[in-house]
Write a structure and sequence with these properties.
Blueprint lengths: L1 H32 L23 E5 L5 E4 L10 E11 L8 H7 L1 H13 L3 H5 L3 H18 L9 E11 L1
Antiparallel strand pairs: 1-3, 2-3, 3-4
């Protein structure tokens, strides 16, 4: 009788421990494993679960008028251009940076040069691709963040996104 009771207690205890382990594993998968992070524990670049609150973001128009850039010649006859209007959305406060707005203003010319160089290295076929605008947003956001963080020690992104309010090519 005593052996039967010990066996039942051990079995119930084992089931409880396994259930707890399963619950912890599922919780880990949904919270930590499903949330990509960089090596220093910060949110990985470009992998936001949701848009940050508007109160955390600032906007800056990059060009006073739409800007025209010549595209890379792909060997076909003709001259191809893209006309864009662009603004950047950046975080107002970033740990380790005294004034983000001053930093963005300081690098304004280099940001514009970076955008110009980006499009001058693209062909008309590159720009006509279905995902061209999305790809340009991602690549330029990464490049601008690298530029702005080149003199900083942190890895937190400054630029949230770049918005193309005009995108016309021919």
């Amino acid at each position: 009788m005593e052996n039967k009771r010990s066996l039942i207690i051990t079995l119930v205890f084992s089931i409880a421990v396994l259930s707890l382990a399963l619950a912890v594993s599922v919780g880990y998968i949904f919270t930590v494993a499903g949330n990509p992070q960089s090596k220093d524990g910060m949110q990985a670049f470009g992998e936001w679960q949701s848009r940050p609150p508007d109160a955390e973001l600032e906007r800056k128009s990059l060009f006073s008028e739409d800007k025209i850039f010549s595209l890379k010649n792909d060997g076909s006859s003709g001259f191809h251009v893209i006309k864009i209007g662009a603004e950047i959305q950046y975080f107002k406060n970033v740990i380790g940076i005294r004034s983000v707005t001053e930093k963005v203003d300081f690098y304004d010319g280099l940001i514009k040069e970076l955008i110009g160089t980006y499009f001058q290295n693209k062909t008309l076929d590159d720009i006509m691709a279905d995902d061209a605008k999305t790809k340009a947003k991602q690549e330029l956001t990464e490049q601008i963040n690298e530029l702005l963080l080149s003199s900083e020690t942190g890895t937190r992104q400054i630029i949230y996104t770049i918005v193309f309010d005009e995108w016309f090519y021919q």
